[in-house]
Amino acid sequence: MKAVFPYPTLLGDVTCDVVSVMVDGKPLPYRHISASERVVALHQSGRAQWEEAVLELRAALPEDELRSGPWQDVICLAVLTEKATNARSTTRLRRAADGSMAGTITLPRTFHIRRATLSVLVAATVEGVPGRLVGSLEDDWYVDLSEATPVRQREIETVEVDFRDGPHEWLRPYKDSAWIVDTSADIPTVYLNTTAVEGLVQILHGSGGSTAEHAVRDMAASQIAQDVWTAMFHTAASNLDADEDGTPVMPTGWREAVLRVMLPHVFPGRQLTDALYEINERRTKGFGWSELQTGIQYAAGRRAQIAKKLTRAVRAVDHAERSTV
Known about the structure:
Radius of gyration: 24 Å
Order of helices and strands: EEEEEHEEEEEEEEEHHEEHHHH
Number of helices: 7
């Protein structure tokens, strides 16, 4: 988590390694732990019906900076969360013989569904106020319950389904829509309706075809992308947490990535932290939200390359028409 605070915070890096993982008391093979990807994969761990995983952690703090700075009563916490279940576990890491901060944190299987986020927070007494957040892990770990391979990158999922008669009853009210974007889960999902627009799914899967097919494919893909970016931005902006001082905290995962690339275009010329504060103010105090929609639409259109794709489509159609004259 990253934020701007009205008191001194750490400049140096806070790092953390998952040293080992025990699943119901048995060691998890190390191939399920990726230090480079910062992911622990618990699926196919060797036990189909496991109850808990215990992660052994070792963190390093910027010790020289801590010794010379204004921070007192420094404590280091490991925090395991999952938004889908609202689960949250916290454990304190303590000083080890080698000077690092070490400890274990337990992930109960029944508290989690898909992917938990492991963060490390540093709190201290600052300016007489105890328990203030002064530092955090720059790059969180993920503990994935549904993957057998510890891979960090998660793409947007695409599901092709018949909205009218398919297995997802919640999609039936949208049977006339060509697609729906769902951002309620950890991974955003685009549901493509296989029956609303005849031939659309086949065109999206194709790579060749006529000039008209190319144009339709480019424009449909860009429009879907714009809808995805717009939906993800609204979800990310509406789920901002705040610290004890009311300062908005940058979310993690894809929500962070979306805000980082879109806020500079929603609020041109503003620093990222200022833009984050501004959008949180408008959301929580209920003013100026409608005025933001133009900026959000612009930012989403840039990410989807709407203008570029439209220009290419217009030129291709124009060239095809001239060729037939």
